[in-house]
Give the backbone structure.
Amino acid sequence: MFLDNYNIRKLLMVATLFFVVFLQQCAEPENEDKADSPSYTNTLSSQSIGNGSSGPVEDYFYNFDDAISAEYFAYSGTRFNTSYDDFVSSYPYPPDSLTMKNFPDYLLDVSPDSSQFVARHPIDTLVVGQDTITSDIGRVVQDSLQLFSSQFKNLESIEWDLDAEPSLQRYRLRNSAWVQKDTMIYYADTFDVKAYWAVLDTPLIDNGFMFVDTSEWNDTSYAFIKDDLMTFTNNFEFIRTQMHSDSLIFRINTDCNDNNQWDQKEEGVSDYNGDGDMKDVLFESNDNFDYNGNGIIEDVIYEFIDRGNGLLDPAETYYDINGSGSFDLNEPYEDRNCNDRWDEAEVEDVGNGRYDDVEIFTLKDLDGDGNEEKYLYTIGAVPNNILVDWSNADDPQLLLDISIGDDLTDRWGNVYNDIIETVSFVDTKRKEIGDIDSLVTLYTHDVVGYIDNDTQSPGDYYVTKTEFISNRYADCLSLGTRDNYDYQIFSQKEHVNQLVYKTYFLPPGFSDDFWYKNYLENEIFLYTYNGLIRDGEHLDTAYYDTTDIAVYFIEKSFDIVRSDEVTVPAARVNPYLSNGECRRPNSVPSSIGCCPNVDTTFTDAFKITHVTNMTMIGSGVEYGQKVYTWLARDHGIVKSDVYYRWSENPFVESFGDGEIDEFGRMWNGYSRIELAQLDVKKSGNVFRQLTNPAQIIDKNDFHNLPDFDFDPFKISNQSGSVSYTHLTLPTNREV
């Protein structure tokens, strides 16, 4: 028996610096099916645009041949419009952080002929993060399982419902809460633990190449189960109170002449009305006809012998609700003769005024003599047989309230003990589980991305890593808590391109509001003109994208303008003055070493605007994203603001501040980042090793790779959602 248990670490989709900034990539116009609209423009064909200012893209964006490390302050949701000064004046910790660095040394490219990368190697010892992995033959593992009994409720009392309509009155059963027991069974399981490692656990590609992060491990575990299962049994002992098996309150009386013996049907005497049967009760006063010819037409004439029981029956027992001393129609009573009416005490032995057919009975052997006797009742589904105790034959009593252990005696002296009985029983539970023979775990590296392009090589791509840091519990002497991370893949061929998993919103009614394709596609992040970014650059694209989910109409616009200046808290000077006072006097640091950053103003910058509008064909639902990004010379991205909108929803304050565009549409502010620190090491191609991929290092040295913190690559939304892990997506259901 074989069980395949994939142990995959699930991580949240984090927003990262480049995710925030790159979520509005514009597609190359010639690579898409353009919608026919004369309003769409493209300035790339113009040599002179704007005010004429321009600059090499690597001066304002990044040269990924260098070693780059950047840190940003991050604001989101209701803090979207919070300034840095307001934040450090209100909180004893800095804003949350978003860090970015390029991927320097530990990527391996795999080509179609790299068959050695799928070979599996036994592991004696392997360190993954803080865990040491070893093989172990004959490991004894203490385990446990929990068994549960069946649930039941105890019957605590029975009450007649006097509040219901007379015809609907019945007993109400008062039960306890659910009763259940459980037990924990501890046992020892012995099995072999084996571990292997390989570079990949996937079939090799047919063409192109893939990047593999050699600093990260994924584990997949396979449990092999023996044919003979392990069986565990437990007996749960209970004492239960329940309705007695005689089911008195469910009985339907069939002894309709109340003589405590079985009778045949009543005999007919004459068919007075000539209707073919002799079962009628005729009222001469109504018919105005003397059926029996006695000269009196006010008689009640029976076509059958309405037999009595040979007794003068007392009045049927009832409950005098109002204490009037007489029976009222709304009062419960014991109908002993099946005529559906209350009867007074007899002065002569008479029948019940109805034709009684042969009496129905229930066969039971209650005395255990081997013979079944006739009992004059049937069992119904409704507990509406009101019980009478005849212990005192001169004063029988209705039992409106019945408690545990109560008894009754019927009219004929039969005693019924414990209407609610107490019983003991054993509930046996059994469970079979697999007996593990061996546990095999395969450790493999994570695939960063697959490039299906034979015209490019690994050396044409750059990989970066971003991390989101929560600083709520941080101080100046300790780092915050990393919430999540992400990777990005870029290339620079004519324009700055990014490989992304395209993201779209789902139709209304789905549980998740966005979905993404599971393969990488190229999108343009930054349009350039002969390697230059220019003031006044403007491009529009539009196309239909037919997916398995829906057809989407995508409209994108891209704008670049020269920015006079942009100010961010990126300190270039000592954060506090020589006199020991913080440069920002309104801050609330715990010590002088915790003084906040000072402002830096950049005057050589460009502002880039990405706008994407996505319309689902059919439903007409629209989703829009807008990103403002400031690029400063030699600093790359120094600031970025992210906005979103839904067609059917107005601005909502809980999602931050917003702005209204020229079409009157409200864009909700969602996230903002500002540069806090930048470190660039001009190192030529020292950190550029994608053209010379790193070799597989010794398995015992994987714990010595701090650059990646042992974090695997994961697929994430890169064009349809917004930033940080502590936020939810801006869905059309939330606003």
